[in-house]
Specification:
Layout lengths: L1 H18 L1 E2 L4 E6 L6 E7 L10 H12 L2 E8 L8 H6 L4 E9 L5 E9 L4 E10 L4 H17 L8 E8 L2 E8 L6 E6 L3 E6 L5 E6 L6 E6 L5 E5 L5 E6 L5 E6 L6 E6 L6 E2 L7 E6 L5 E6 L6 E6 L5 E3 L6 E7 L5 E7 L5 E7 L5 E3 L7 E5 L5 E8 L2 E8 L5 E6 L3 E7 L5
Keywords: Cell cycle, Cell division, Periplasm, Signal
Family: Belongs to the TolB family.
Main location: periplasm
């Protein structure tokens, strides 16, 4: 089963790369802040890694460093990985040591091997052996970083996941898909009309979004492998804000077909449209709860915009946010415990907040001023969002404790409307 899951992962990843045309602009990442209790990890250069298209050890270091959870110790090159002096590495301050090798195979593939060693207990914590095609060498490095993150923190790593976002240059719009580190950018859709609100399907093979190519907002679902598109909502008026149910069978959307914008649910093939919310105000930006039982949404039914929760089938809604008079764009963590949202306090800046749903405790995570479109990493540890920097839209990532911040910028155009993809099974 593990082999089949890995194969599916590679097929989907390959399909994304083959089906989409390459983008030119690459993103640059700036990191500030570190996590509490950083784990010191020594990462050695992988033996013969220069034969591969990507430098495995450098990608692993960058992933771990970007997370803020690790203090990276450069281990240089280790000539004999079978006779490790654990005491020496422990004295250098390393709790763990990463070693590995890359071998070019006769059929054009690469054999990538890695071991994670515990310097304190003087033993092996983990290992992975992967034989893969050249285009998957970056992915193999991300998967190794995921394994290190899991073994040392107890939380599944999200380095091998993907993100989607919209790039705008003048009147040209692109829906782009990239690795979580901003590399490997692929264009899924080009348009001369706006593209907004992309949303990943739970299996990572499709993205729902709103396109204005028909001179009005219409909700589409696009298969990223085949590029086939399905119209999911093209009702009278506005069709917006698609959000997938956790099982991938339905979407929640915001439609104005009956007057005021309200929340509806619809099957992923566009059938079975059903109204879920019922108010005299505007109900929009629906988001399914992690268990699929509830839908969170933004409504102005109490005067200003606030976030509410109702049963997925409809019915009475309960208000969730009470801090401040303007709260929008709800997003729920994968464990269902944390709500991320955008808030404007005292008529000031739009900033990213999180709310602990059990305790009601709020925390502001950003120090920027024009935040929008938050999206949790699939492990719930980070939030990707759009913000403004020097009159240009860019992407940012912040850890849920607010300690680690990243800024993803590109030389060309504005990047906005981000969404973080799921774990690839």
């Amino acid at each position: 089963m593990a082999t089949m899951n890995k194969l599916n992962h590679y097929i989907i990843y390959a399909g994304l790369a083959i089906a989409a045309s390459s983008a030119q602009a690459q993103m640059r990442i700036e990191i500030s802040g570190v996590g509490s209790n950083q784990i010191p990890v020594a990462v050695a250069a992988f033996a013969d890694e220069s034969v591969a298209p990507a430098q495995i050890s450098a990608i692993i270091k960058a992933d771990l460093e970007r997370s803020g959870a690790f203090k990276i110790i450069d281990a240089g090159t280790i000539s004999d990985v079978n006779n490790i002096d654990y005491g020496a590495w422990k004295s250098r301050g390393a709790d763990a040591l990463v070693v590995g090798s890359v071998q070019a195979l006769a059929d054009g593939r690469y054999d990538v091997r890695y071991k994670l060693l515990d310097t304190i207990k003087a033993g092996k914590l983990s290992q992975l052996d992967q034989s893969l095609a050249p285009q998957f060498t970056r992915l193999s490095a991300h998967r190794i970083a995921d394994d290190i993150y899991l073994k040392l923190t107890g939380v599944r790593g999200a380095f091998s996941t993907r993100i989607a976002y919209v790039t705008q240059e003048g009147r040209s719009y692109r829906l782009e898909v990239a690795d979580a580190d901003g590399e490997g950018v692929q264009v899924a859709l080009r348009s001369n009309e706006p593209i907004i609100s992309p949303s990943w399907s739970p299996d990572g093979t499709k993205v729902a979004y709103v396109s204005f190519e028909q001179k009005k907002p219409v909700v589409y679902v696009q298969n990223l492998i085949t590029r086939a598109r399905t119209v999911v909502a093209n009702e009278k008026g506005s069709n917006s804000a698609p959000s997938w149910s956790p099982d991938g069978s339905k979407l929640a959307v915001a439609l104005s077909k009956d007057g005021h914008t309200q929340v509806y649910t619809v099957n992923a093939d566009g059938s079975g449209l059903r109204r879920a919310s019922n108010s005299n105000g505007i109900d929009t930006e629906p988001q399914w709860s992690a268990d699929g039982q509830s839908i969170y949404f933004t409504s102005d039914r109490s005067g200003g915009p606030q976030i509410y929760r109702m049963n997925a089938g409809g019915g009475d809604a309960k208000r969730v946010t009470f801090g401040g008079s303007y709260n929008i764009s709800p997003r729920i963590s994968s464990d269902g415990k944390t709500l991320a949202f955008i808030s404007r306090r005292d008529g000031g800046a739009f900033q990213l907040f999180v709310l602990d749903l059990a305790s009601g405790q709020e925390q502001r995570l950003s120090d920027t001023t024009s935040d929008e479109s938050p999206s949790f990493s699939p492990n719930g540890k980070y939030i990707l969002y759009a913000t403004e920097s020097g009159r240009r839209k860019s992407l940012a990532v912040v850890s849920v404790d607010g300690r680690v911040k990243q800024r993803l910028t590109t030389q060309a155009g504005n990047i906005k409307e981000p969404t973080w993809g799921p774990f690839m099974q």
